[in-house]
Amino acid sequence: MSNTNFTGKGPVTNEAKRRITIFDTTLRDGEQAPGAALQFEQKLLLADKLVRLGVDVLEPGFPVSSPGEFEAVQRISRLYPQIEVCGFARAVRGDIDAAVKATADAEKRRIHLFISASDIHLTHQLRMKRAEVKQRAREMVAYARQFVDCVEFSAMDATRADQSYLAELVEAAIEEGAGIINLPDTVGYAMPHEFGEMFRFVRREARGAENVCFSAHCHNDLGLAVANSLAAIEAGANQIEVTVNGVGERTGNCALEELVMALDTRKDYWQIETNVQMEHLYDVSRSVSRMMHMPIAFNKPVVGRNAFQHESGIHQDGLLKNRNTYEIMDPVRLGIPHELIVLGKHSGRHAIKHKVSQYGIELNAEQLNDVYDRFKQFADNQKVVTDQQLLTCVGEALDQEWGRFKLVDVQVVAGSSRARVASVTIFNIHEQTEHTYAGIGAGPVEALIRAMQQAHGNEISFEDLELHSLTSGEEAVGEAAVTVQVDGHSYRGTAAHCDIMLAIAEAYMAACNQAWSSSGLSDSEEADTQKSAVQG
Q1: Which end of the chain is more exposed for a tag (fewer CB within 10 A), N or C?
Q2: pLDDT for the residue numbered 5
Q3: Pyruvate carboxyltransferase domain: which residues (predicted)?
Q4: What span, in angstroms and rounded, lies between the C-alpha atoms of 342 and 346?
Q5: Which residues of the chain register pLDDT less than 50?
């Protein structure tokens, strides 16, 4: 462990850069979030994504808790020799035995055992005296140390424990062979300065502390998990325990993506590196959200829908001139398909011109003013103007239908005792032909997507669908955002309607029209014809 000095201006280390170990517990603590249970295959898929993301330590589950958990930890231990796999256990022999057996085939492994440290836990949960807990910690660390070289000891609820007793408990664990000491903020109680001071105190008072690695595991009950984790780093912690999207018990854990990007964006301050490959952050985040059925908040830092979207005209204008004016991170670097502009009543002409250019449409000043006036009529009545509505404005201003395809009709049949069936009628503007397509699926959305895919063959593949409620009540309006892909490039269309199935169909059509216009799929004759119409 390197010697580290800290000043008011930020960390200063003896090495050029300090490296922090990223310990991921998405598949263990993250899965403990209510409703977030994963199927066996889902756990394996997420483990693979986390390994590619570059986390250093993977805690795949709690082996003793169920046969399924044991099997998942065992399988992951066998699959990834390049990563350290951690078996989680209470300070109980049976738990440790299960963790040892489940991780037996791991190339690199550790046992992570815990016991409570605070008096409130000792009195009301464990019903044990301080001396008894310390003796149990000694015995169980020594027992685990017989089987593995690396034992991590967690003093649960450390932030509410008597600090002198906490130092004694840590010292006992170190004496028995624990090489990693985790001081968790189990209930998200600490303030950052308190959390940092706790680490300094224990590192100073516990004998042998200079020979072990210190780790932080923070919960987010007061919204301070990332701040507390950074405070721990500043106070000497070299490992941080995280989950993707901050999932976990109650309000969750320290969010992997937020911690990593705080360290990276402010590397001028921290001078700290991690092994995380940031181009995978968005993909992993979306995968965790889908599989755990936990939507990502629109305003979630780093990976939220609004993190790199801008509606204010002033912000949009500055952003289009230089991204650094209002963005401190590069979304492309994080693997985020960059939807630069969200159009609303605060948007200006510059943003509208940029947005329509994504569809291959170039407007002169007079045309732009006409489109802008029509756009404002939409924007005054709703918060966000969708791609389909913007194209309607363009079509009306230019007195022509814009795009390659136009949605003529949508019919969807759903019921509890029969297959869901959808049919769509689509007009090909270029060929001046109209065709009807039908599809079936387990649900109405699947049936609709299958029907619409037939109009584009294999050239455009469906990638993603997001649904959001824009209003409430009987006349609620739903917004759909559909992403399609062509040759590795993503195109996103949006639409809103009180009939959500129609919104999905219109959003899909908007995305496909953008793909045809921007990807080179449109033939040159069509492109020239539409370009002439705009310039004429």
Answers
A1: C
A2: 39
A3: 20-282
A4: 10
A5: 1-10, 12-14, 523-536
Identify the pLDDT of residue 40: 93
For residues 510 and 287, give the distance between their C-alpha atoms in angstroms, rounded to a whole number.
25
Cα separation, 5 vs 511, whole angstroms: 53
Residue 352 lies in a domain: yes
What is the predicted pLDDT for the residue at 383?
65
Distances in Å between the alpha carbon of 393 and those of 102, 320, 372, 373?
61, 22, 8, 9
Q: Which amino acid is at 185?
A: D
319-325 own/partner pairs: CB under 8 Å, 24+ apart: 320/350, 320/351, 320/354
Q: Identify any residues that bridge with 412 across adjacent strands, giving them in sequence order.
A: 422
pTM of the full predicted structure? 0.79
| Number of residues that this document lists for the chain | 536
Q: Identify the CATH number of the domain in which residue 142 sits.
A: 3.20.20.70
Q: Do 215 and 128 have their domain in common?
A: yes
DSSP, residue by residue, 61-98? --GGG-HHHHHHHHHHHHH-TTSEEEEEEESSHHHHHH
> Residues 234, 353: one domain?
no
* Burial zone of 8 (CB within 10 Å; 0-12 exposed, 13-18 middle, 19+ buried): exposed
Nearest by Cα to 239 from 475, 57, 375, 62:
57
Say how many domains are in the chain.
3
DSSP 218: E
What 312-316 contacts at long range (C-beta under 8 Å, 24+ apart), as own/partner pairs, is 312/346, 312/347, 313/346, 313/347, 313/348, 313/350, 313/351, 316/341, 316/347, 316/348, 316/350, 316/351, 316/354
Closest CA to 233 of 20, 498, 530: 20
Tokens for 344?
Answer: 């609303």
Residue 497 CA to residue 159 CA, distance in Å, equals 49
From the number of C-beta atoms within 10 Å of its C-beta (0-12, 13-18, 19+), residue 147 rates as middle
pLDDT value at position 337? 65
Q: Are residues 242 and 378 in the same domain?
A: no
Q: Which residues pair with 183 in a beta bridge?
A: 216
C-alpha–C-alpha distance, residues 229 and 214, integer Å: 12
